[in-house]
Amino acid sequence: MAIRIDKENKIFYLETPNTSYIIGIYKDKYPLHMYYGKKIKTMPRIENMMRIGWRGFFGREEIDGELICPEFLPQEYPTYGAPDLRNPAFHAIYPDGSCIGDFRYDGYMVEQGKPKLSGLPATYVEHEDEADTLYIYLKDSVTGVRIALCYTAFNTVDAIARSVRIENGGNAEVDVRSALSMSVDIEGADFEFMHLDGSWARERHVVKTALTTGNFGIDSKRGASGHAQNPFVALLGKDANEMQGEVYGFNLVYSGNFTAQVYVDEMDYSRVQLGINPFNFSWKLAPGESFQTPECVMVYSDAGIGKMSRTFHSLYRTRLVRGKYRDIERPVLLNNWEATYFDFTEAQILEIAKKAKSVGVELMVLDDGWFGARNNSKCGLGDWFVNTQKLPDGIVGLAKKIEAMGMKFGLWFEPEMISPDSDLYRAHPDWCIHVPGRGRSVARNQCVLDLTRAQVRDYVLSFMRKHLTEAAISYVKWDMNRNITEPYSVSLAPEKQGEFSHRYMLAVYEILEKLTTEFPDVLFEGCSGGGGRFDAGMLHYFPQYWTSDDSDAIERLYIQHGTSMVYPFSTMGAHVSAVPNHQVGRVTPIETRGDVALPGQFGFELDLNKLTDEEIESVKAQIVRYKKLGAILHQGDLYRLASPFEERHCAWAFESEDKNTIVLIQCTVTGRPHSNTYRLKLPMAQTDAVYTADDGTVYHGDYLANCGLQFVDSKDFVSKVMVFEKQ
Ligand code: DGJ
């Protein structure tokens, strides 16, 4: 059982294999955060949790004849104003216009397993004994509003999932202005705040900032998690780094507007909170209705950032990602986007496919430009009927021809969008997101469909079902190339417009749930101008995601390194593309492009007919190697040995599940004349074992682990892959 309860003292112990998360009920009212860290068996009495200090300015509340000061307490789910004045996790406006709720502990429940979150992506269990779930109930007796705090402790992985359900058990409508997924007051303030920052083609770069008192946060108001900030933060304890130290990681399983913030208060608590962004959010909760927040996954590591990442990876690749492709190796693909952009004919695609087949590619993907009048990005989105000038035999015919070559066929869609210059827009100008009487901003010349409307959702489902049923489509690339401006729906009442952005995400999830259920054999890859919505929410539907529109090998070192803080390499689409690279103009060797793409979901983004014979031989070898090592790279454990954000090079090592094989990938970013040697230690090497490298050299494990292999940063962009087999 992952949950133990000291009923007498009302203390709840959530236990994962190596960690404890402990909550106690204080004065029969407040759930307090007592501890999160390495496993401990018992906690002292809850009275010890109160901070000591001068209370003059802080609101006090009388409970059982004693004046207590909630601002001196580490709270599990704080509400505002009565009388804690720090950042609340829950904030609502009640019928009398007040925002004060007096939430008191109202019991608990424990169940085996993990419940599904209605309409939302979440981690899951396959067997009930994999996890236990605790609900702690809070109730405001004046309004009848109840808050259910839900905690799932996993039995096989050191992760805890939290979410919250708000229920209106009263008889008047309540306006929920903020309902975060989690809040935790961690003792102490001496932390670094780590997050993943970026932009289009530069996603998820690692940034660390020392915390001081005040608010630190990242967020999105873009209608998607976005390129700029990812719904992930970690607090790094003093001296924590990749290999050592205490790290607390938090990741929201959500793809829309989010907040992820830390408030360091004057009592030296660091209040970490993640959830739907309260900005422009309001949810009218009628009597009897409830609101479910997204899930937040928490991971504690006592051995640095690396261990935190490995925990997220193991949970996400087995219990977030779903479907047929979760556990099997996926096909090596070639996508024509950077080979042709919009300018292609069927004959050209078949030429590209033929060459791809000859080197070992298994899946030919046709990207944007196959439908309507879509010859550039200015028009056509929404007109999902084939352009027979380009493809005379349609998608059905092209798919048949590709299959006849012995490959699978995949197709690009951007289902959430509509171009103002499209037949769909001319027929339904009101279907796009807009505020009547005001302008409609375009981005990449397109608007977003208002998927909160059932009729619009039905349209999207109907054309997707039609294509997936008619043609032999084995793979879908689901793209989304802009964020949402003018958030508003003509179908929602004025007082419900604050619900729009979350309702949009619920609509996307509903469509994806239906399609992935109806077409279980189709491999779905997510995309949003590259990695603009690469988040845990999307990975519940898409087992892989196009990591970035930047396909340059060196830029990809940074992007993939940052992405791997939370998301496993098995979820990252990674392709070899042409040089000079189309995004940054850099020229890197074909071997380096292959080595850097190797650990991801491997593929190509170029016309292989344009390569030299020598390069083609290299490509063939890359595919053979990938087929051999893919399972180790995708199911094994990642150790980041060198960060391109801190060194002149990058290095990742993967340990196979059976611990018999280690794969090392190293790449120099910029060479340095003289004094350019360094060592890479393989911490997972077994010190009493002997390994044979793929070049035949024999190494003792203690040498690999303690002394390390020597490398030289002599030339820019030179990479190396080494495989070590235990004898
Ligand atoms: C953005 C994607 O990230 C690209 O890979 C490509 O699919 C284009 N959209 C097509 O418009």
Description of the molecule:
It is a single chain. The longest helix has 23 residues. The model has no long low-confidence stretch (mean pLDDT 97). It is globular, with a radius of gyration of 27 Å. The strands form nine sheets. Strands 8, 9, 10, 11, 14, 15, 17, 18, 22 and 23 form a ten-stranded antiparallel sheet that branches. An eight-stranded parallel β-barrel has the order 24-25-26-29-30-31-32-33, surrounded by five helices. It has a six-stranded antiparallel sheet with strand order 34-35-36-41-38-39. 19% of the residues lie in helices and 32% in strands. Strand 10 and strand 11 form a beta hairpin. It is an alpha+beta fold and 727 residues long. The two termini are 39 Å apart. It contains twelve helices and 41 strands. The structure holds (2R,3S,4R,5S)-2-(hydroxymethyl)piperidine-3,4,5-triol. (2R,3S,4R,5S)-2-(hydroxymethyl)piperidine-3,4,5-triol (DGJ) binds next to loops.
- How far the N terminus sits from the C terminus, by CA atoms, comes to 39 Å
Number of strands: 41
Mean pLDDT: 97
* Total number of helices: 12
The kinds of small molecule bound in this structure are: (2R,3S,4R,5S)-2-(hydroxymethyl)piperidine-3,4,5-triol
Q: Roughly what percent helix?
A: 10-25%
Derived from helix and strand composition plus strand pairing, the structural class reads alpha+beta
Name the descriptors.
binds (2R,3S,4R,5S)-2-(hydroxymethyl)piperidine-3,4,5-triol, 727 residues, 8-stranded parallel barrel, alpha+beta, globular, 32% strand
